[in-house]
Amino acid sequence: MSILPGKLEQALSLAVATLAAGVMPAPMERDADRDQALRKLAAVAGDKGWSMATLRSAAGPDADLLFPAGVVEMVEAWSDLCDRAMVDAMLDTEEPRLSQRVRQAILLRLPPDEQRRAAAAKAMTVFLSIKGQKAFRRAWLRTVNAIWQAAQDDATGLTYVSKRLSLGGLYASVFLYWLARGSDAVGFEAFVDRRLADVLRIGRIKARFGVSAPPSSAPAQ
């Protein structure tokens, strides 16, 4: 992975910090033609990168017209497409425990797929550019929110915000692990389980000692 770890960690920290506002960015433009073009591009982006030239090669000579704002819009839209695929895959889950539904959603969003990981690593080079950083924070907010949506959580108010803050930090660590070692599905799942257990334990400690942050800031009940 050619991304500088320090720069990525800094970007993730800033993205998590924006969760405190509790305001989600507007949905992206969505249509079937854009989605189809993004799927074709993502299949080769790990090797060829995210560019208009690669998009035209993969999806047709006029495919660039689908993304008038350029490459950053294209990568942000792909992140949104991955979020929606995760939510759709969770619609029929029968898991009764919220913590396990969160786990399922994370594993769906970050699969042990080399093509997906390579495409995501190349996408991060776009997101970490000067023009891409605001788009990255928007995409990050949408993903964290989509995980809770996929987990069918209905929190509101302060609990809504605190849950997203809690999950934002957890997702940052598992995303970094996934980029570096996500090809090992067993190892990655074990890492996700450890991080979820840490958040649950902190939530229980807060509840036991009457810390003002609501216990539901942990991604489970």
From TrEMBL:
Residues 139-202 form the COQ9 C-terminal domain. InterPro entries: COQ9_C (IPR013718). This is RpsU-divergently transcribed protein. It comes from Acetobacter syzygii.
